Amino acid sequence: MSQQPPQWTLLGERSTKDFHIFRARTLDVADPRDGKPYVRTVIDAPDWCNVIPVTRAGEVVLVRQFRFGTWSNHLELPGGMLDEGEAPPAAAARELEEETGYRPARLEPLGVSHPNPAVFANRLHTFLALDCDRVHDGRHDTSEDLRVEVVPRGEIKRLVREGQITHALVLAALLYEAWR
Question: Is this model's pTM higher than 0.85 or not?
């Protein structure tokens, strides 16, 4: 195993700004090699979850929604933030049902990843939801406007290859599922 890089030194925290769904902290840090100071930003957000929902017929339930960062629609897996004190499997089942109206018979954990450890301090919990049945039309948050799309499981690779699924966290989830 390779040698670990040296740990940076935290000199202080200058400011925190609360954006309701996350907080941004400004840190003063020192390079461990020469002590040179730098400013870094860390975003504290609740943990997230995403779900690969597979119906009893072997179809994958996806959502298409508008994303402000790219100012475009994206084809994604259902998911969202964990509520305070909520266990990841409960959040995954809740988000799946809220966004799509589907409920799984079984939920299997696939893995935990760090969405972007350069700036985010949270984790992403990924689940496989099996034998999903549609129980209602979904109960979206008031700020969500999404469309449910159900595709044959075998079409997912094509959607990725053709650039129709580009969200990095969705791609990571699909990789977890492919490697299980």
Answer: yes
